[in-house]
Amino acid sequence: MLNRLVRHTHFKKAYKFVTAEVRLLASIAIVSGLVLGFFSLADEVGEGDLDVFDNFILMLFRDPDNVDLLVGPVWAHEMVRDITALGSFSLLGLIVLGVSAYLLLLRLKSEATLIVMSVAGGTILSTVLKWTYSRPRPDLSVMSTQFTSSFPSGHAMLSAVTFLTLGTLLAKIAPNRKIRIFFLGTAIFLTAVVGLSRIYLGVHFPSDVLAGWCVGAAWALLCNIAATVLQRRGEVTASVGSLLAKNAHGRHI
């Protein structure tokens, strides 16, 4: 009986180890694929191979008789403008500060630091890429003057970096599976709608948004890999539930 229990325990540990390693390798493979996708898009944009595709998608949201007019009712236009603001630097910064403050209140200093460094690094990377490619914006924008170049979309990239980094890290410290799914699903949804709003408003070409998603998701996954390594070392808490249980135990002592 004891021998069977020992064998079962060793099997569970081995299974968890193998599963964790497979997930880590899969994450690295996905990051590689996303980076490759970004450079493929960059090459095709530079050669003009995506011009027809970009213009076709943009015109789906324009009145064919007057390309300066968006399709849909006026209230929809305002709603999309509100959605696109979710990917602005100022609003994302406030979200990061709010979540980081919450984590600090839970005494999760490493997690808060990781989020701030991840988003700050993604912001720097986005700026460097925009300077490097310097693609002009579409001539269809209904918004105010844009001050940065078009490729990749900063809103799409930074929303992916911020929301996916927050989603994956919060999922890691979530107390149960349902909350983990909620965090990840919300992060993916917000990333998607921000990028689509940029296309609808004509502020970016579709290839700009696709490229922003690729590099933003790759960066967020890299940060997730870093969080996984830190979690194994015990520098990132396994879950909020375990932290609260530990604190409760300390109070009882």
Automatic annotation (TrEMBL):
Ranges for domain Phosphatidic acid phosphatase type 2/haloperoxidase come to: 113-224
One Pfam family name is PAP2
Q: Which UniProt keywords apply?
A: Membrane, Transmembrane, Transmembrane helix
The transmembrane segments are 21-42, 83-105, 112-133, 153-174, 181-203, 209-230
What is the protein's given name?
Phosphatase PAP2 family protein
